[in-house]
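Continuing the batch. This is chain 6 of the set; chains 1 through 5 are on the previous pages. Same settings as before, nothing changed between runs. Recording input and output for traceability.
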Amino acid sequence: MTNAPAEFKLGQIGTRDDICAVFGGSPYSGGIVPSREPKNVTLFSDHEVGKLFGYHDGWLGEEDEIGPIFEYTGAGKKGDMTFGGKDGKGNSAVLHHAKKGRALRLFMAVGTVPGTDTKLHRYVGEFKLDEQQPYVVRQSLDEDRKPRRAVVFRLRPVGTVQHKTEDEIPPAPTTVAKLVPANTTESKLVDPEKNTKKETKRAAVPETTAKRREGELSDAFEAHLTALGHVVQRFQIKIKGKTGTLLSDLYDVTDHVLYEVKGTHKREAVRMALGQLLDYSRYTRTDEHPEPPRRAAVLPALPDEDLQDLLAEHEIVVVRPSGDDFLGVPPSIS
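Output for chain 6:
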């Protein structure tokens, strides 16, 4: 063990003991180390560990209008990742770091102390969760090499951070679209704070009424298709030359129909559904169905007539709820 420094500067390297002596928490707490005092949540990322579980933390090559994003995979060794239970406590600490007044401190593994197995970690800097989309859900592997849902946090830099090429997610060598379970979505993950009856304002987890309705509508429509005996999944898509991962909405494997679900039928949502369906349907094909899928937008009600015409021009039908049923569902293929 080295002598613990008084502080960590960007790029500075130390052991977990060194780091926790400065930022708090237990050095034996896994990849996510929360501390009440000082108020930090320290994140440890290790590419070698990521390889074992089928993921790669790092900077996305594609920035959005806000700026760069670092993807960090949450905690959990077996089964689906959660925000509760032993492993889920760390994920919950990350999710609610802003409300608790905690800073996110990110470190990358960079080898070991010479002559030992003690790992060394480089300080990347301070981060916060993306306010619009704090995390996404993907399929990866658990420690038994079994598929599971993984929480991937979207981190935004706070001030100056260290952005090294070696910390970037490598671009996909080829375009690959694989089928994953329909429950590979954030609406299927239970955040304990969402179960409280008292309304709370969470700085890092904005949730609009439309977003909640979208999840409820998606769940209801998935149950409807399943009750009809259809197999329902999603497509997880990696595009050649890109570092990001796309996740489609519901895909009816039985009838080869791609659905995009929105919680409102307003113009902006309909236009987004149109764009996503045109985009994703280029990649959502299977050996059984090599042709492009049929496409449908699942909305809470019919949109304006001109929007119906717009969707029809692109051979996209509108599906909407009617009591316990759904209208507009494309007929089954024979």
